[in-house]
Every structure is written in C-alpha cells, then in structure tokens.
Amino acid sequence: MSEFILETRGLTKHYGGVHALEDANFSLRHGEHVAVVGDNGAGKSTFVRQVTAVEQRTSGTVVFDGKEVNFDGPLDARHAGIETVFQTLALADDLDVPSNLFLGRELYKFKLGPFSILDRKAMRDRTLEALKTTAVKIPNVDNPIRNMSGGQRQCVSIARTAAFASKLVIMDEPTAALGVQETAQVENIIRGLKERGIPMILISHNLRQVFDLVDRIVVFRRGRIVANLRKEETDGNDIVSYITGVKSQLVEAD
Amino acid sequence: MATSAHGTGGQKYDPAKKTRPPELNVLLALILIVVVFEILNRMNGGSFLFNMRDNVDAIFNKQRIDIILLQVAITGIIAIGVTQVITLGGIDLSSGSVVGATAMITMSFAQTALVNGNPNPKAIFGDWAMDLAVIVPIAAALACGLFAGLINGLLVAYTRIPPFIATLGMMVSARGAARWWSNGQPISFPTETYASLSNGDLLGTLTFGLLSWPGQNPAVVFILLAILFQCIMVYTRYGKHTYAIGSNEAAARMSGIDVNKHKVLVYAIAGMLAAVATIMLTSKNLTAQAGMGIMYELDAIAMAVIGGVSLSGGRGSITGTVLGALIFSVIISGFTSIRLDAYYQEMVKGAIIVGAVVLDQWRQNKRSRG
Predict the structure, then answer these.
(1) Which CATH architecture has domain B22-49+60-364?
(2) B34-81 pLDDT tens trace
(3) Total beta-carbon pairs less than 8 A apart between chain A and chain B
C-alpha cells in the first residue's frame, strides 16, 4: 500500500485561455485531513472538480488508492470511494431524510428491476444511526427536507457523505452558509471522520476552522499551489501572507 | 435551533411535528363540496347522495354514485399516468390525442364480422381482422400507448426539449394519425367479448361473485390501477426516483440515478395508461372516432392539480389525483342535480382549475419563503 491515498501530479485545467489550475502537485496521506485555502478564484474549487471528475482535466495525472485513475464523472469517482459535499446542495427537497441519504443507493426488500420494493424501515434505521454518530439533530426525519433550515439540510448532506465515506471525503466550503451552532455540528462530523481515520480535503475560508480541524494546510494562489504547511509550523498571519501573495514558497508537495 | 422558526420565514413551524399530508386538504374540500350540494338539493326537497325514493330500499342514491365514478373513471386512468409525469417534473399534453389514435387502431382489430346477420358496415380491414381474440385489440392498444409514450420519453430525455413541446408535438401528430387511419370514418361494432371489457362485471369475476358491480368496469379498473400505482409510487424504487427527479434533477443525476432512462419509463407508463383508458372508452361506447379524447389531457392534468400534484414536480400522489378526480366529477354531477346548464359547468370547471393552481402556488410560496 502506498503512503498516499491521493496524489496529483502536474494537474492542470485551462478554460479557454484562462489558466484556472496550473501544475498542481498535491498529496494526501491515509487518515490525514488537509485544508485547501486561497482567495476566490485561486483554483481551489477547480482543483476539487478535477479530482472528482466533475470536469475533465487538461493535463496531469491523478493517483487514487494506489492506482492511476481517469474517472468519467463524479459518479465514477463516488463508486471508487470519493464522497464529496459540493457547494451547491445535492439534495431532493421533497424527499425525507432517509430517502435523501440513500438517494441512488436504496436498500431493497425485494429486487424487481425498477419496481424493486424499498426497505424503508432499514433505511430509516440506518439513517437514525448515521445521524447519531454525526450528532446531527433532526427533529423528524420523515418530513421532507424542504421544511428544514439551511443548517439542517447541510447537515443531512454532510451526514450522507460521512455515512457512506469509505476512502476519501471532500468538502467544498461546508459551513459557508451556516450559523454558529450548525457550524459546530459540521465540525463535529469532521472530527468524527478524523477519529474513524477517513482522510479529508476541506476547502474553507475560515482560518479558525482550518487550524481547529486539519493537520496540514495547502494554499492556492492564482491557480498554483504556493504553500504546503504543517499546522504546527505556521499561523494565521503566515497563511494570510501566502494567500495574498506577500510570501511564496516553492513547493514540492511533500 | 430546533425550536426556532429559522428558515420558515418567521412563521410558526414545529419541526418535530409531521407535516399534514396535502391529500387531507383535498379530502376536506371534497367533503365540503358534497355537503354543499347535499344542502342545495335538500332545499329543493331532494338529496344529492342519499336515496329519497320510498320504493327503493337503499341508503344512498346508488345511481348518482355510480355516475360520479363512471364519468371520471376513464380520464381518471389517464390522470394516474399524468400524475407520474408531472411528479417527474414533466407534463403530458398528448394523452387525449393518444386516446384518439389508439381508439381507431384498437377498434379495427376488435370488430365483429356480422352485425345483425349482415356484414359489418364499418369494417376497416378484410375478413382476417374480424372476430379476433380479444387479446389482439388489447395488445394493439397497449402497443400504441407504449409507442407514443416511448417517443415522448425519448424526446424529453435525450433531446432535452421542454416536455411541453415534445408532448405538444405528439398531441398534434397523434390526432392526425387518428384521422388518417380511417379517413375520419368512425370504426364500430366490436365483438361481444371486447364490449364486455367495459360492460361486464369485473368486480364479480375478481371476487368470485362475492361482490358485483356490473357495467362499472372502467371505475373498477380505475380504482385498481390507482391502488397499484399509489403503492408503486410509495414503496418502489420507481416511485422514489420519480419524486427525486421531479424534486431536484441535478441531485438525482449526481446520486447515480439514470435520469434519462427513468424519464423514458415514466412517459411510457403514462402512454400505456392512456391505452388502458382507450380500451375502456371504446368498449363502453362500442365505437371509435377520430375525435375521441379531445381535452382529456387537460381534464387529467386538472384532476392532478386539484388533487395537490405540484406542476413544478416532486410533490403529489395518486391518492390526491383520485380525490381531485372525484371533486371534478362531484361538481359535474352536483350541477346536474341542481339542474344547472352545461355551459355554466364548463365555466366553473375552468375556474376550479385556475383556483387549484393558485392554491398550489400559494402553498408553495408559504413553504419556500425564508
């Protein structure tokens, strides 16, 4: 087994003439939590979109779980074991919590093609279990999530990711729109992932959160990785200097 | 956080409480309408639902109830399919025309050779198509419905044109096909077995004579199909994915649901249900005409909307549609019972449809505010 769960070499994405991501060399160890920070347009989300195959990269290689991979799309990546919480919620508002958690991977009592009978009780039970391990409080999981607050919905989305996480979790600004309490809940879920030894890439603007949660911080600036620092060897001001371009480090990512 | 009104626009909302199913409101509306007509009838010394004749030993006015169910059954069967299409986030404008085309084609394979000892005056094909086993016209009908539904579904799923346009095209083309089939001539005189599909006693057969409801087969088929599809929508993957796609297509796609394939399936099922309605209609009327089914699509959509099916997809149920269909029918019967002109009936029908959509919008705004 290789030391790394995920490695990218020379990952590059051009949108026409715009060089959104340039020669990104990134690596993530088993069980490691890494934050990706940077200004708007620095290439953070672009980087994630290449790894999860939401977009197809211009060049470069991605090695996941010891194998070089070329995912056809986000589904393919998900099947391989990469669970992602995207900035835009991928939830069906009219469905209840269990249906959303198991959307596209329902449990069945009885298989019969498209008319397979759902095992609603098992899905409900496992949902309650998943919510318990993530400490998310949803008063009634049988209500459509339309009626829930933004924070509760985001928690459902993240609980889904955490519940099914197998090899790698990627979260793109999971707490951007949340209140203080809801943010704390999400952070608890992330700590739970850490305890379970599931590696994570966290994109965040919130440096307090970053220093709280992760082992290592990677700074993007203008489509390039400009810093790769262990949490202990840096501080907030240092990171801001990298983000704004005051400082720069020529990095060979680990 | 759990007890705050966060995210509900400041309105009181207890998140621990199960939300009241919208079908309940529709049921209340139905009961209210029935009560209103009962009162109006009582004022004239009659009754809407109850038996008033001394020489008949019955509590209810069976005749009226039979009519209420029968007149709604055929469009109701279509509405079951339309409900699924709308829940998926689509719309099907073609069902009425598909009924027309399917009726013509089906009836040509259901004709009897001799009418009162003379050759069938409306014969379309030669002798080979006379007195065929009843399974032949049934298969022909289902094939027609499936074909139309598949085209609708494939167009919607793979060309990404709006369902409104795709099914509008089918609406116009299928009507054309209905007229072309026999140059506009009606096709009549089906075999006895075919006629019995509607006019027999299916309930008696199914319950081994325990119950009996002769001549009401369309209503029996409507109710059975409604129960079947209500279960399918709630308990199977098909239903779950239909709601998911109607609710958030991008999320459904992201979650690994084969959205395109599912769309084709839903439209195909809607087409087949229109075909079942056609079989009931033609065997009831003993004839097929190219103009059959005109406006059925709108009636079916109206039933769904009155029954709480959201035109923006993701919400609604077959139960709601059945209740919507009953409201539809009760109003027509009610107007007849108080001897209101058919013209007024149509006008009021229109107002009810618009009213139902306004209510839906209002409900939706109330929910999504904040």
Answers:
(1) Orthogonal Bundle (1.10)
(2) 999 999 998 888 888 888 777 777 788 888 888 899 889 999 999 999
(3) 108
- Measured CB to CB, residues of chain A less than 8 Å from chain B are 74-75, 78, 86, 88-95, 99, 103-106, 108, 112, 114-118, 120, 137-140, 142-144, 146-152, 179, 181-182
Of B255, B257, B314, the CB nearest to A94: B314
DSSP characters over B29-83: HHHHHHHHHHHHHHHTT--SSB---TTS--SB-HHHHHHHHHHHHHHHHHHHHHH
pLDDT at position A252 is 46
What confidence score (pLDDT) does residue B153 get?
A: 97
pLDDT given at position B283: 95
B247 in contact with A, Cβ within 8 Å: yes
| Chain A CB within 8 Å of residue B9 CB | no
Question: ipTM score of the complex?
Answer: 0.81
Contact A207, A240 (CB under 8 A): yes
Torsion from C-alpha of B52, B53, B58, B63, nearest 10 degrees = -80
Across-strand partners of A21?
A13
| Per-residue pLDDT reduced to its tens digit, B297-324 | 999 999 999 998 988 899 999 999 999 9
A248-252, B121-125, B229-233: range with lowest mean pLDDT: A248-252
DSSP string, A67-122: EEE--SSHHHHHHHTEEEE-SS----TTS-HHHHHTTTS--EEE-BTBTPEE-HHH
Residues of A in contact with B265 (CB under 8 A): 114
Mean pLDDT, chain B, integer: 89
Q: In CATH terms, is domain A4-244 a member of 1.10.3720.10? A: no
Do A183 and A205 meet the contact criterion of CB atoms below 8 Å apart? no
Beta-sheet pairing, A200-203 with A33-38:
parallel
Tokens 């209420």 locate to: B68
| Distance from C-alpha of B103 to C-alpha of B133, rounded to nearest angstrom | 17
**3-class DSSP assignment, residue B187:** strand
Residues of B in contact with A89 (CB under 8 A): 251
Helix then strand count (H, E) for chain B reads 14, 4
Distance (Å) from the alpha carbon of B96 to chain A's nearest alpha carbon: 27
- How far apart, in whole angstroms, are the C-alpha atoms of residue A140 and residue A235? 42
**Is B238's Cβ below 8 Å from some Cβ in A?**
yes
Type of residue numbered B131: D
Q: How many residues does chain A have?
A: 254
DSSP 3-state of A197: coil
